[in-house]
Structures are given as C-alpha cells and as structure tokens.
Amino acid sequence: MVINIIISEVNLLKDYVILTNNSNSTVNLKGWKLIDTTPTNQKRHEFIFQKDFFLQPDAIIKIWSGTGANDADNIYQNRRAKIWNNPGDTAELYDASGNLVDKKSIGKLLGGRGPAPPKQPAKITISGYVNDGVCGQSVADATLLFQPLKGAGTVNTNSDETGYYETELNGGQDYTVTVSAKDYDNLKETVNTKAGKNITDNFKLNPNLEIELDVDSAEVKFTRKDDNKINATRELKDKIIVDFNTDYTFSVKISIEKGMTNKIKAILIENGTTNKDSRESNVCRISGDDKTVTFTFNPNKQKWDWAILDNFLYAQKKETEKTFDYVVSLEAEYGSNQFGPKLFPLGKINVKVDNHKLVLFEYYNRLVADWWKAVGSVAALTIAASLAWPLATLLAIAITTLAILTEMKSQIWEQVKDPPKFDKNYKILVAPRLNLKIQNIKQRFKQSSLIRRFIIISRDRLYTANLQNDKQTMKRQIKNIKLLLKAHNSDWNVIKSYFKKSIKQFKKHKQYLVPEAISQFRKTMRSGRLQRYLVTKSLKQSANFSEKEMRIIMRAFTNRKFMGKDLNLLTGLNARLNLIDRFNKLFINNIEKEIEWYCKIKRRI
Fold first, then answer.
1. I need a surface site. Which of 34, 273, 372, 496 has the fewest CB within 10 A?
2. pTM of the full predicted structure?
C-alpha cells in the first residue's frame, strides 16, 4: 500500500495547513507530526495526532493554529499566537516512524508543488460589545460598518443577542466605523489597524426613543379607622367618601407604555396644590418585567378647623365637609429623552365630619351653658358667703361643681378636635397608681380626669401598634385600656353620687341661686358698688381660671345679652347630671367600640 499524504496548502492569512490524502486507501494519522520551521531550520511549533484519525482517500483535513471546535474536516491547535505568519516559514509533515513525508514553505516553491500566494496585507481581528450608553444593556442586531479612509475594502457586521461582534480588517490602515441601531443615535469613530495587532473596541450608543407613561391604577389604603373601614384598600375611581378621622395612603402604579427610563418622578397634587408629596425612581427600567413601578405616598391627614369657639366659649361650625381632588404629575428621563410633566387625574375623596363628633359638638355647647351657670353661681355665692357664713359649704359645693364642668368642657372639646394620633412610645403601657377608696371628691375627680387622659394615650398607642402590625403590643394595650375603663367607671360612680347630693344642697339654699339673686349681683357689679377686682379676686381664689377665661367671664357678667337664667346653676340640675352621664357613657362606648375593632384586626394580622 502506497501512502501519499501531501501538504496541499499553507494559508498565511487565515493561519492553517491543509493535508490531502492522494492515496487509494484510508490512512490512520495517529502519531504523525506537523512541525513549523524557520528559514534557518529552527523547529518552533509541533502538532501531533494523539488519537486515531482516519483520512479517507481524496479527503482533506485543515489544521488551524487558532481556537475552535474540532470536526471531521477541521482540527484546532487552540494557540493564542499565529504560526504561519512569516514568509519563509516551512511546514514539515512526519509519519509515526519519524520519516519526513512532505514539506511546504511560504513564499517560494518547494518540492514542485506550485507558486507561493502573492503577498497580501496582514489581517487583524476586531471584536467587542455594543452597549446602551445610559443603562449599559446589550444592543442586539447593531450594524457596524468599517470603511477604510483610503482605498476599497468596506466591511460590515452585526452584533449578536449579547451585543458581541467580531470581524476581520486589513492591517496597516485607518477605518471609519459607523455603529447604528434602532432607537439609538448613530455613532462614528476611527479605528487604526497600523499596529497589525488584534483590537478590542466597545461602543456605547446614545438612546433616541420616545417615552410614554400612563397610570395603570391607583389605590387608597385607609390607615386610620372610621365607621366603615379598618385598614381597607379601595381602588380610587371617581369619588370615595371617608370619615374625618380617616388617614389614607396612595399607591399609584405607573406603566411604561413606550421606550425605557432610568428616572421617573411622580408628584401628588391635591386641589391644585403641587409639591404636596413627591417620589422618584432612579432605576433602569428596560425590559417588560420591570416596566411598571408603584409609588406609595405618605398618609394624608385631612384635618381642618371645622369648629371654632366664639367670644363666650360656645362652639360654632365652620365647615363639616370637604372634597379633595387628587392628580399625579409624571416625568421621566432616559439619556437625553424626556417625558412630561404630564397630569393624570386619580379621583376625589370626600371627607366628612362623623356623627360622633357632631354629637360631641352638641354636648359641648350644652355643657358650656351649664358651665356659665356654675360660674355665675360661684361668683354670687363668693360675695354672699362673705356676709353669710353658712353659705361657705354651698360655695364649696358650687366650686367643685364648676371645676368638674370646666374639666369636662375641656375634655369634650379635645375629642371634638383631636382624632387618634401616632405615638412613638406605643410599646410602653401607661399604668397610673390608683386609689379607688379616695373619699375627697376633688381628688377623686382629679384621678378620674387622669384616668380618662391615660385611656386616650393608650388608645393612641393601640392605634400606632396597629399601624406597625405589632400584634403583641396591641394585645397588651387592649388589656391595659380595659383595666383603665374599669377604674374610670368606679370613680365615675362616686362622682355621680356626689352630684346627686349637691343637687339637694343647692335646692336647700335656692334663694341665693334664683335668677333674681344673680341679676341683683350683676346690677351691683355694673353700678360700680361692687368693684370688679373684688369679683376677679374672689373667682381666682375659688377656681383656677386663666387670664383669658377671666376676661371672658367679666365680659359676660356685664353683657346684657346674658340673662339671669343663663347664669343660674339651680335650673336643670337633674338634666345637667344626665347630660354629663350621657357624655361619659358615650366616651366609654366609643373606646369599647375601638377595642372591638382592633381585636378584629389583631386576629387578621
């Protein structure tokens, strides 16, 4: 069997050698060697067929110096540098026994196998990535056009799905490369290949695309209860009616309908007032998965002075209902591309003062009327007691009654004006030291007022624990409020008993409290026979009035619009007691109702 394997080609440009089997039979090349030698016969590189490799008759095999995947027609040596790149380099082929089978040099005739290829410019490989210049993502299917500054030889290629490109250019000259892609500005740069080495060059394109945003949905979460909602969430459409005590948080879902963004700004506008609350998202949003963003705006607290006090401390209604129109302003950026600002209507929220506050409002004014009667009676009795010593006991009762009414008036007004509020100390329990056996009515009432204030504090802390989803603290605060309510009821029963006894005392000495007696006292003061400073001094000693209250009281004493009956404590004593008792029950019922609400919430947390 005659073996005739020849080196049919040594390619200087693409750096490979072709072996051809001119035999009539298959040849196993295991153990054969391909060696690179220099013109001075120095051996530099050696390739050995390590495994069985059968070359069929008339078949060829390309042996590449570079990297690639081997197959039936190609073998790659996976070398970093070129081998066959200099004229005069010689390829020598040896069989498994070490015998020279064939050799071929670059650039001259060897063994009569034909002329060497003409000398051409060396090829270099240019590769790299095409990326977005703002967010850095890959730009697929970008076109790269390489045009030589002199001569012909334009080359073009495209980036793949990862943004990668690779192509060959002639070495030794300059190129202008134009990179273009859909939704991006064209980029032109100069590439120099004179060094004759492979080049890595990455390109960043500036986006040029239309941006369009839209409001996908808007939801309102009620973070403070009212009569109908407990942490409920509703989609904002047209109009929602809520209670004055309700706070609410907006969640606005924005969708990117066109283009991409790396910055979105949303501003909540209320009744045409801008910059009420703003949010920004500085995140690259470039794919379908992240082309929506939800902005949550801070809780809105729609509180206003719906009730005010007039010159004589009576409450007057100003505005018990308001409608708030909400709009969101959207802006977006992506590189030099802009969107907005553009306004998107969200809906309206109608805020009303609840029935509970309106009832308290009426209770307050009725209690103020009784308070004035107590003030007038205390003033008259103060003067009368200086002339008739037995009236001192009645005066003491009247003063205590006035003090109780003053405190009750203040507490009701606070509840008219003040809804539950956030308390950062919500984990701390308020636990006053209580003495439920106190006999002194002033101390008893002082303790009762303190308990009431602690109940309000505990209610605020329960409200805050609910906002924080702190189930354990909610449980502890609910238990504490129940204990305080029990103590409050005990105190109130003692105070109510005192009021009933006071009524009997007032009726026993009613001649000093009838409208005629009060009128006589006021005439004496208006005539100047009773100096104002004496009345002021007596009242300050009897009750703890502020300077503002004293000015109001003295103005009422001399104002003819106030009738004698308006300052008479004796009238309607039983009705007064019933009024205070109803207010007290209303307070307790509302606290118990809140506890019931929060117990339901706690079970759902």
1. 273
2. 0.56
